[in-house]
Design goal:
Strand content: under 5%
Strand order of the largest sheet: 1-2
Order of helices and strands: HEHEHH
Radius of gyration: 18 Å
Number of strands: 2
CATH architecture: 3-Layer(aba) Sandwich
Number of domains: 1
Shape: globular
CATH class: Alpha Beta
Structural class: mainly alpha
CATH topology: Rossmann fold
CATH superfamily: SGNH hydrolase
Distance between the termini: 46 Å
Largest sheet: 2 strands, parallel
Helix content: 25-40%
């Protein structure tokens, strides 16, 4: 981190996203061992902003529950999200950027409401938004 700072970078640590590992009570289990807490501790020691995606994704997955959460992951996969799960996780990152008051916040769009991982967007109404840079105009020669 010292090297990044020396070169003008602003380090930000992000804890790992949870895996879809529920216990018998419908709560997410810690499948990462000590790693998330080590990232939190390093952020404190180095006075680096932290986005706690581990905590936010736990809340998110438990809000979905064991069955609905399957629909936010790639088929037969409890680690990698599909488009919906990725979009909801990205919203968690955006909230982390805002909460940490990172300078990067000025580049975020302002036309979406705040996101609460305990109240995810309904999966049945999810539509993958078009890229703001997308165009239907073909380049010359095509």
């Amino acid at each position: 981190m010292a090297e990044a700072r020396k070169r003008g970078g602003i380090p930000v640590l992000v804890t790992p996203v949870q895996r879809r590992t529920f216990d018998q009570n419908g709560e997410i289990t810690n499948s990462h061992g000590d790693y998330p807490e080590a990232v939190r501790q390093l952020a404190r020691e180095e006075n680096v902003p932290l986005i706690d995606l581990n905590a936010m994704s736990k809340t998110l997955y438990e809000a979905w529950g064991t069955d609905t959460s399957k629909r936010a992951f790639a088929p037969n996969d409890n680690t990698h999200h599909d488009s919906y799960g990725s979009y909801e996780s990205a919203k968690c990152i955006v909230e982390g950027i805002k909460a940490s008051k990172l300078g990067l916040e000025k580049f975020l769009t302002t036309d979406i409401a705040a996101f609460d991982p305990s109240h995810p967007d309904p999966i049945d109404s999810f539509v993958l938004p078009a890229s703001p840079k997308a165009t239907s105009v073909k380049p010359l020669g095509n």
